[in-house]
């Protein structure tokens, strides 16, 4: 099933299901500027609730409040933010995608779509801006070699979202810091120096002082691609509910949209892996951590004590 809710309708429906704070990365803000405008809007909103907030929509919203699996997607496409939230509870999945609003901290309409685990990865990727696959080859190099340079470079930090593994060069662990009460989006910028750009080595001079082109090492090729100008980028943080009852990140999958080229997926553990991806190929990559999350939640349910033990 599919619904499109204005921010005002989403906020009221969220109140009606006794939802806690609206989940990241959604940025739902009421349009009323003061209590008088709010009072004027309320009758129409209550009429909408009475006719449209049925059992199906209520159930979909409740899945957002306490999922077993969560995929938080935040990025940029040009000047606009990309906000998608995919969740699963049991056999039911819900994807909430918010259209860009008038300001970076204020989104527009929220689209809700229900489905199953088989459709979750493809549904999430379908809400990313369309982009052809990159034209370059698949690249892979050890993280320490990618971070290294053959010439001094100013130190820099990779921006991260609070409570998540630290950017594309992070190795997700079994635990993460508790989520802040009001989580802010990661400092993702389309500028070529952030967050993936790492200076590459200078070419060696030739006999007469001219630069002699050399075949780049895998690490240099990775650095070179990550330093190119971009039209968009973002990350997906995949989390699963553990036996402690808390959702913990288990993987981070990033993407970059290289200007004049196309989209690449970036995945990092001990190696930085960069893969040109179509929408279908990107969904295939996302299915791997989702399958791991399913196994974790299945074990959690199996080990959970039942009443009377």
How many helical stretches?
A: 7
**Helix/strand/pairing category:** alpha+beta
Radius of gyration: 22 Å
Helix percent band: 25-40%
Give the overall shape, derived from the CA principal axes: globular
pLDDT under 50 segments (min length 5)? 151-182, 189-203, 305-309
**Element order, helices and strands?**
EHHHEEEEHEHHEEEEH
What is the mean pLDDT? 82
| Percent strand | 15-25%
What is the strand arrangement across the widest sheet?
1-5-4-3-2-7-8-9-10-6
Give a quick account of the main beta sheet: strands, pairing sense, barrel closure. 10 strands, antiparallel
Quickly count the domains: 2
Determine the N-to-C terminus distance: 39 Å
SS elements, strand count: 10
Family: Belongs to the EspG family.
Protein name: ESX secretion-associated protein EspG
Subcellular location: Cytoplasm
Keywords: Chaperone, Cytoplasm
Write the layout of secondary structure elements.
Layout: E1 2-5, H1 7-16, H2 35-52, H3 55-65, E2 69-77, E3 80-89, E4 92-98, E5 110-115, H4 117-126, E6 139-142, H5 143-147, H6 218-226, E7 230-241, E8 247-258, E9 262-268, E10 271-276, H7 279-303
Antiparallel strand pairs: 1-5, 2-3, 2-7, 3-4, 4-5, 6-10, 7-8, 8-9, 9-10
């Amino acid at each position: 099933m599919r619904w499109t809710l204005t921010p005002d309708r989403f906020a009221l429906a969220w109140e009606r299901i006794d939802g806690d704070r609206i989940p990241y990365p959604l940025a739902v803000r009421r349009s009323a500027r003061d209590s008088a405008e709010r009072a004027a809007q309320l009758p129409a909103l209550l009429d909408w609730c009475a006719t449209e907030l049925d059992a199906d929509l209520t159930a979909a919203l409740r899945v957002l409040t306490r999922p077993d699996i969560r995929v938080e997607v935040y990025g940029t496409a040009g000047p606009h933010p990309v906000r998608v939230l995919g969740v699963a509870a049991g056999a039911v999945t819900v994807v909430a995608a918010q259209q860009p609003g008038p300001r970076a901290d204020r989104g527009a309409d929220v689209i809700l779509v229900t489905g199953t685990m088989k459709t979750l990865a493809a549904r999430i990727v379908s809400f990313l801006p369309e982009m052809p696959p990159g034209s370059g080859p698949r690249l892979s190099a050890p993280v320490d070699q990618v971070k290294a340079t053959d010439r001094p470079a100013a130190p820099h930090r990779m921006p991260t979202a609070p409570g998540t593994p630290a950017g594309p060069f992070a190795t997700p662990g079994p635990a993460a810091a508790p989520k802040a009460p009001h989580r802010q989006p990661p400092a993702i910028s389309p500028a070529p120096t952030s967050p993936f750009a790492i200076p590459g080595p200078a070419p060696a001079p030739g006999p007469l002082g001219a630069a002699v082109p050399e075949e780049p090492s895998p690490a240099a090729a990775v650095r070179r691609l990550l330093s190119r100008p971009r039209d968009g980028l973002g990350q997906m943080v995949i989390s699963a509910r553990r036996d402690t009852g808390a959702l913990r990140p288990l993987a981070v999958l990033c993407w970059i949209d290289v200007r004049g080229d196309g989209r690449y997926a970036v995945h990092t553990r001990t190696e930085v892996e960069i893969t040109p991806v179509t929408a279908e190929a990107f969904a295939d990559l996302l299915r791997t951590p989702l399958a791991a999350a399913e196994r974790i939640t299945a074990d959690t349910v199996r080990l959970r004590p039942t009443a009377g033990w």
